[in-house]
Amino acid sequence: MMDEETVEKACSQVAEYTDEDMVAEFDRFFKAQPAICEFIVELTHESGQKIQELSLFLSYMVFKTMEIARSGATPTVTPEQIEAAYRDTESWMEAVSQADGAELQSSIASSLQRDSEPHLLQYVIGELNQQMEDGTNLSDEEKGEVFFVLKTVISSFMNEPKRRIIEID
């Protein structure tokens, strides 16, 4: 599990990047995690540039946090891992949506605390509640969409690929 300190360390490092550093980091992210980037672009292509860019940036932040926590050894996420995480996120969203108005907040809060990465999810939620660079706020629908993408991305990183043992005669 990523702790709050690791998330803060990733944020501090990225805050010091120049524009050129950021471009180089995104190139590295796209090369290191092509399946995640393709998933985000595909899922958000009808949502507009703002949602797509925010989803990609927050996914980069998750990637950066993982690198710091794992001392640079972040395995490449496969399409199968993303698909499994997507199904898990759909199930989670379905379960949370079953709660009615009064229970919804406490249901979400307790569910996030049980999640494997509560600090990363809290970081994402905090960012979604911030004003955008253009001074606007995300609508609840936009927040939900980005959250769904990021919960799937985080779960994808947590799902270690299944390995087979092959015996050679």
Describe it:
By secondary structure, the protein is mainly alpha-helical. The protein has one domain. 72% of the residues lie in helices and 0% in strands. It has eight helices and no strands. The chain has helices spanning 4-15, 19-32, 34-44, 49-69, 79-97, 101-114, 118-128, 140-158. Helix 1 (4-15) packs across helix 4 (49-69) and helix 4 (49-69) packs parallel to helix 8 (140-158). It is globular, with a radius of gyration of 17 Å. Residues 162-169 have low confidence and may be disordered.
SSE blueprint and pairings:
Blueprint: H1 4-15, H2 19-32, H3 34-44, H4 49-69, H5 79-97, H6 101-114, H7 118-128, H8 140-158
Outline of the structure:
This protein is an all-alpha fold. The protein contains 8 helices and no strands. It has one domain.
Question: Could you name the key traits of this structure?
Answer:
globular, 169 residues, mainly alpha, disordered C terminus, 8 helices, 0% strand
Uncertain spans, ≥5 residues at pLDDT below 50?
A: 162-169
Number of strands: 0
Largest sheet: none
Radius of gyration: 17 Å
Number of helices: 8
Alpha carbon gap, first and last residue? 39 Å
The gross shape turns out to be globular
Helix content: over 70%
Strand content: under 5%
Order of helices and strands: HHHHHHHH
| Tally of structural domains | 1
Helix vs. strand class? mainly alpha
